[in-house]
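Supplementary Methods. Inverse-folding protocol.

Structures were first reduced to a discrete structure-token string of length 164. This string, shown here, constituted the complete conditioning input.
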């Protein structure tokens, strides 16, 4: 039988862990990464009108913050990449949406593309996921999944395969 996702109650007393666990979405009993990615939607909504330089700067800040909070939460939990740590999904989704066109259809396509690459973990994402430790290791596979998803999203925009 599969082990149910669980987070100890003390985690909610640590601000870094509250962020790392996606304000509670990481405690979802199934698909915590998908629920965690949902936190990326309002984060992206707040960022979508930024110029590209500011967008990338905020994304870099969210990544660096993620390295720290994911590392400290993983150490506190005693598990390298606990399923409840979902800040990496938030940042991965924000990366996916870099230069995305406006509209809910693109939000949804970006969400689905990011979840696909995060779940399937094609090479080299899987290699990074397995071999890089610490907070950087928790974050980097989702960064790469976000980059793959962003490339696919931009290809869909350029080829006009999505009639929006």
């Amino acid at each position: 039988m599969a082990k149910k996702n669980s987070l100890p109650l003390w985690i909610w007393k640590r601000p870094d862990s509250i962020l790392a666990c996606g304000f509670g979405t990481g405690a979802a009993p199934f698909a915590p990464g998908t629920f965690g990615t949902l936190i990326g939607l309002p984060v992206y909504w707040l960022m979508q009108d930024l110029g590209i330089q500011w967008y990338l700067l905020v994304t870099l800040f969210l990544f660096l913050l993620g390295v720290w909070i994911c590392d400290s939460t993983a150490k506190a939990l005693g598990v390298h990449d606990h399923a409840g740590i979902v800040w990496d999904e938030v940042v991965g989704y924000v990366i996916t949406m870099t230069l995305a066109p406006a509209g809910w259809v693109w939000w949804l396509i970006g969400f689905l593309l990011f979840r696909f690459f995060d779940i399937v973990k094609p090479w080299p994402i899987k290699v990074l996921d397995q071999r890089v430790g610490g907070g950087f290791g928790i974050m980097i596979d989702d960064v790469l999944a976000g980059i793959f998803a962003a490339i696919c999203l931009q290809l869909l925009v350029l080829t006009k395969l999505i009639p929006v």
